[in-house]
Specification:
It is built from 14 helices and 14 strands. The chain has 386 residues and is of the alpha/beta class. It folds into 2 domains: 242 residues, Type I PLP-dependent aspartate aminotransferase-like (Major domain) (Aspartate Aminotransferase, domain 2, 3-Layer(aba) Sandwich); 132 residues, Aspartate Aminotransferase, domain 1, CATH 3.90.1150. The protein binds pyridoxal-5'-phosphate (PLP). Pyridoxal-5'-phosphate binds next to helix 3.
């Protein structure tokens, strides 16, 4: 079936899937097999020979994710970081230069600083909200500009179309980590990006019960390269994890509006509270990229950060909340609270964190879909303990 003319919610439920050919099962089976029968040497019966290369549950997920981003191709990986690493090793060779957003998930920073630095790749962390900084950072050997918008943990918003123009003029590709926005709120390929990356662990799965990633593109060549990497490097997700994401995406369009309205209410209440400072949420009029967010996104997401002044006060706050649970990660139906300084961004050097504004008192909320009144009472109760 051609899903390109269908609306988001219909694509979310159906794209990539059709009744199982052997049984008619409406739900895509979990094809829990590593290998497939061959009628003769080199003649696999249904075109599948080994599950690292191809698996029908994974193919269904890939078809679904591509449709959600209005794209031609998607490749699923065993984690968001595995997807990011696949992107880097597909696009970059020794001597090439990468521009990476300065405010990105700490694991990406760790991968570049502690692994990729050994392989002759040059990279710069750049404030991609500043287009002059992006322009000035582009070198003759720049091959990739990697953006994260909204970013983790400072929730900054980068102009995707403007960065894509700058990068393309210089012959570089642009990738966007769309994990925080999800395809429900933002479609970077339509703004000129070449690749969209997702940690499917987060909103796409939505239930905090697996780890996964994806790369999505309209480029035939990149898609072939990503499939080659699945086969050759093997960082593929298992069929059960694919099935869990596939089940999650069916309700993405139902969950996201609740995430967004809950976050708007909470950002407003934090903004009015004297115990906290510098509330970061693109839906607030004083957010530095509020107008850009309104133009580029169809809603503001459900990630909010704010400062309580010190690590001690942050610890006091996150141990006082009851509904918001202290944990890494985000994007699940349940609300989570974390302190990026020592948690998600623990491996970013202190001077880098200080330069970015990731302070010891910064608290990050992933706002879930619980009853908003319980979430409000929980936060107000914890703020009173400060
Ligand atoms: C924005 C963002 N991108 C990528 C990742 C990495 O994804 P994963 O944990 O699935 O490897 C994370 C993880 O927190 C993230 O927040």
């Amino acid at each position: 079936m051609d899903h390109s003319t269908q609306r988001f919610g219909t694509r979310a439920v159906h794209a990539g899937q059709s009744p199982d050919a052997s049984t008619g099962a409406i739900m895509t089976p979990i094809f829990q097999t590593s290998t497939y029968f061959q009628d003769a040497i080199g003649s696999p019966r249904q075109g599948y020979d080994y599950a690292r290369v191809k698996n029908p549950t994974r193919e269904a997920l890939q078809g679904n994710l591509a449709a959600l981003e209005n794209a031609a191709h998607a490749a699923a990986f065993s984690s968001g970081l595995a997807a990011t690493e696949t992107l880097l090793k597909t696009v970059l060779s020794e001597g090439d230069h990468l521009i990476c957003g300065a405010d990105v998930y700490g694991g990406v920073y760790r991968m570049l600083a502690q692994v990729w630095t050994r392989f002759g790749i040059q990279f710069d962390f750049v404030d991609t909200t500043n287009l002059d900084a992006v322009k000035n950072a582009i070198q003759e050997n720049t091959r990739l500009v990697h953006l994260e918008t909204p970013s983790n943990p400072l929730i900054t918003v980068t102009d995707i179309a403007a960065c894509a123009k700058l990068a393309h003029e210089a012959g570089a590709l642009v990738s966007v980590d769309n994990t925080f926005a999800t395809p429900f709120l933002q479609n970077p390929l339509e703004m000129g990006a070449d690749v969209v990356m997702h940690s499917t662990t987060k909103f796409l799965n939505g239930h905090s019960d697996m780890i996964g990633g994806a790369l999505i593109t309209n480029s035939e060549k990149l898609s072939e390269d990503f499939a080659f990497s699945q086969k050759t490097s093997g960082s593929v997700p298992g069929p059960f994890d694919c099935w869990l994401v596939l089940r999650g995406t069916k309700t993405l369009h139902v969950r996201m509006p609740v995430h967004c309205t809950n976050a708007e209410r909470i950002a407003g209440l934090l903004d009015r509270n004297s115990e906290v400072e510098g509330v970061r949420f693109p839906g607030l009029p004083q957010h530095p990229q509020h107008e850009l967010a309104k133009k580029q996104m169809r809603g503001f997401g459900s990630m909010v950060s704010f400062d309580v002044g010190s690590h001690e006060r942050a610890n006091q706050f996150v141990t006082a909340t009851q509904v918001f649970q202290l944990a890494e990660s985000l994007g699940g139906v349940e609300s989570l609270v974390s302190v990026p300084y020592t948690m998600t961004h623990g491996s970013v050097p202190p001077d880098q964190k200080a330069a970015l504004g990731i302070t010891p008192g910064l608290v990050r909320l992933s706002i879930g879909i619980e009853d908003i009144d319980d979430l409000v009472e929980d936060l107000e109760g914890a703020l009173e303990t400060l």
